[in-house]
Amino acid sequence: MDFEETDEGTHVVLAPEGKFNLVAAPPIKARIDDLVAAGKDHLVVDLHAVDFIDSSGLGALIGGLKAARQQGGDLRIAAAGDQVRAVLKLTNLDRILAPYATVEEAADGW
Amino acid sequence: MPPSTARQEAEAIAHSVPAERYDRVVRLAQAIFGAPIAALNLIGTDSQWTVASIGFPQGETPVEDSVCRVTVQHDEIFEVPDLREDDRFAKIPAVTGPPRARFYAGVPVRGQSGQNVGALCILDLVPRALGRQQREMLADLGALLEHELSVQEEMDLAGQVQQLMLPTSAPDIEGVEIAGRVQPAREAGGDYFDWFLVDDPEGGGKLLQVVLGDVMGKGLAAALIASEVRAVLRGHSRYTDVGDAVARASTTTRHDLEANGRFSTLWVGRLDPAGGALEYVDAGHGLAIIASERGYRRLAQDYLPLGTPIEDTWTRASDVLAEDELLVVVSDGVFDVLDDSFEQVEAKLHSILEPGLSCRQIVDRIVTFAVSHEATDDVTAVVVKRVADARPGATSEDTPTATG
């Protein structure tokens, strides 16, 4: 899975595409860890181009969230599609990964 | 002759191996040696099993017609420049009839036991001989296959261990029928179900605890964590109510889940078969329903899975399972093929829950449906119903199975 990365100064936006699954999750998680280690701990994952997420994809987001918060930052998700929202809601993970409508809203205040 | 344990091991591998796993190495051998035939043959008790091949049919042949049966008695490459000139092989069908093989070279392949279980061989239709470099290359390919085989055997064994941890008999309690099944996407997986009896912590006698857990990810790594969550939950469940048991299981497994960056959803219910009282906790699982001809209701709560950065409270909720109702719990592998939509669940329920079906039949229908719709994840289902008669759940046809 390819993902776009944009450094907005106050935060970094990662935008994966396609299936966010067992194959795609590890490289994104690794990139999040690198960013957080480099002090870039305010992250937005733009999910508009993700059409399917599985538990491994969720795991990468939760793991990224944890890493960012440990450094005093945060990870937020934006523009999630129907399937992603359904899975977040099913697992109640939307309680800790609230989906924002847009990247701008997610990064509001940063 | 090689010891019979090696032949038994070869038989076991031949019956469990997904053939495509070895096709690549066999294709490589064929291309490197420019030979018309390349094959991986396993030498069983009475048969040679050709599990991967090019230019030669796969399947079973009598072991006495095999050349590889001699190769497995050696520990190095066995080469026959012209099979017609060797009394042991001059009369075997592959030499006297099609494909009329002349040249043979094979490298023995060891199984996990360290004994030779088969051989990677190449055959040509004209007499020839391998050069030194070619012999080295054949030995390298044999080593590659050996590694593949041992990984596969290890995975199969892990899958068996996981399968043997599933409950295999009906619970020793009257008034309930139960069935469950796991179909892992790989040899082992992060899904599991469990059931066992617990003493009612409030002193009301025996209760049936039913569990469906799903550790994120697939394969052996997820299976290891699933095995831990299962054992820890079993341990805590003996002493306290379902909510508390899940909360304690979360505390106990927290380090291991966090260290591995994994989380686990859990649905845990406790049923009193006599009156139908059901207490449950839903830790981010969301896929338990009570269904009947009248419709269905979800047994879901707002709690998080185990292993997230937040420690939740996991307090039990209550419901009652009526005598004409079914408790159905599935994993997200089933939900995925329904497009993660409860509208589709409702539509599908009508065709799955026909009156008169046993729990076993319903579980099989659910799993078969998900697998036939190309589920990519592990697929699990557990179905429970109350029955008036004394323990029909104990009949052999209702014993649960796990299919790997």
Radius of gyration of chain B over alpha carbons?
A: 27 Å
* Unreliably modeled segments of chain B: 391-404
Strand tally of chain A, please? 7
Name the CATH superfamily classification of chain A.
Answer: STAS domain
The ordered string of helix (H) and strand (E) elements of chain A is: EEEHEEHEHEH
- Coarse shape of chain A: globular
Strand order of the largest sheet of chain A: 1-2-4-6-7
Fourth-level CATH superfamily of the largest domain in chain B: PPM-type phosphatase domain
Give a topology summary.
The complex is a heterodimer of chains A (110) and B (404).
Chain A: E1 3-7, E2 12-16, E3 18-20, H1 25-37, E4 42-46, E5 50-53, H2 55-70, E6 74-78, H3 82-90, E7 99-100, H4 103-106
Parallel strand pairs in A: 2-4, 3-5, 4-6, 6-7
Antiparallel strand pairs in A: 1-2
Chain B: H1 4-16, H2 20-33, E1 37-43, E2 47-54, E3 59-62, H3 68-71, E4 78-80, H4 93-96, E5 103-110, E6 116-124, H5 132-164, E7 176-183, E8 191-199, E9 206-215, H6 219-237, H7 242-259, E10 264-271, E11 277-283, E12 288-292, E13 295-298, E14 317-320, E15 326-330, H8 332-337, H9 342-352, H10 359-372, E16 379-386
Helix pairs in contact in B: 2-5, 6-7
Keywords:
heterodimer, A: 110 residues, alpha/beta, Transcription Regulator spoIIAA, five-stranded mixed beta sheet, two-stranded parallel ribbon, 4 helices, 7 strands, B: 404 residues, alpha+beta, Beta-Lactamase, Phosphatase 2c, domain 1, 2 domains, six-stranded antiparallel beta sheet, five-stranded antiparallel beta sheet, 10 helices, 34% helix, 26% strand, elongated, disordered C terminus
Describe the structure.
Helices cover 38% and strands 26% of the residues of chain A. With 110 residues, chain A is of the alpha/beta class. Chain A has one domain (3-102): STAS domain (Transcription Regulator spoIIAA), CATH 3.30.750.24. In chain A, β6, α3 (82-90) and β7 form a beta-alpha-beta unit. In chain A, α1 (25-37) packs parallel to α2 (55-70). The longest helix of chain A is centred in the middle third of the chain and has 16 residues, at 55-70. The termini of chain A are far apart. The mean pLDDT of chain A is 94. Chain B is α+β, with helices and mostly antiparallel strands and 404 residues long. Helix content of chain B is 34%, strand content 26%. Chain B has helices spanning 4-16, 20-33, 68-71, 93-96, 132-164, 219-237, 242-259, 332-337, 342-352, 359-372; strands spanning 37-43, 47-54, 59-62, 78-80, 103-110, 116-124, 176-183, 191-199, 206-215, 264-271, 277-283, 288-292, 295-298, 317-320, 326-330, 379-386. The longest helix of chain B has 33 residues, at 132-164. At the A-B interface, α2 and α3 of A face α8 of B.
